[in-house]
Specification:
It is a single chain. By secondary structure, the protein is mainly α. 63% of the residues lie in helices and 0% in strands. It is globular.
Length: 146
């Protein structure tokens, strides 16, 4: 019986100690809330240059001039008007990203075509043949000439 009483008393002491350690004691000071996070720093003046440099390293060309963009959009519309579908900026962005894919997988034409097909398909699915044509239009109009 003494053993059970000692065990029960030990359990009560441990529970009380746990409550005190967790702030269960009303005499303890309230827990401090963490300091608010500092606001994000403003972009540095070099940020756009850094982005352009990173894109160039990845094979992504700068945005094309108006004449180049017009020629590229015309090439895509020749393949299918559904590619651009009135969203020239999106078509240019996808084309620039495709240049990055070509840069990343220079010896894997099948992968380039597959990724191009995925990238340009949306509401409209494009065939492998159309993806090949889109890839050729991107290469000839947007990608850096090496």
């Amino acid at each position: 019986m003494k053993h059970r009483t000692a065990t029960a008393i030990s359990a009560v002491v441990i529970a009380a100690a746990s409550l005190t350690a967790c702030g269960g004691n009303s005499d303890s000071a309230p827990a401090k809330s963490p300091a608010p996070a500092a606001p994000p720093s403003a972009p540095t003046p070099d940020a756009p240059k850094a982005i352009k440099d990173a894109e160039a390293k990845s094979g992504i060309p700068p945005k094309p001039d108006a004449a180049t963009q017009e020629q590229y959009i015309r090439a895509l519309n020749t393949i299918s008007p559904a590619i651009v579908n009135g969203k020239e900026g999106k078509a240019v962005s996808r084309g620039r990203d495709t240049c990055g894919t070509i840069h990343s997988f220079p010896k894997d034409h099948a992968k380039q075509v597959h990724i191009t097909q995925q990238r340009f398909s949306g509401a409209t699915e494009f065939s492998t043949k159309q993806a090949e044509q889109i890839l050729a239009a991107v290469q000839s109009n947007l990608c850096p000439k090496n």
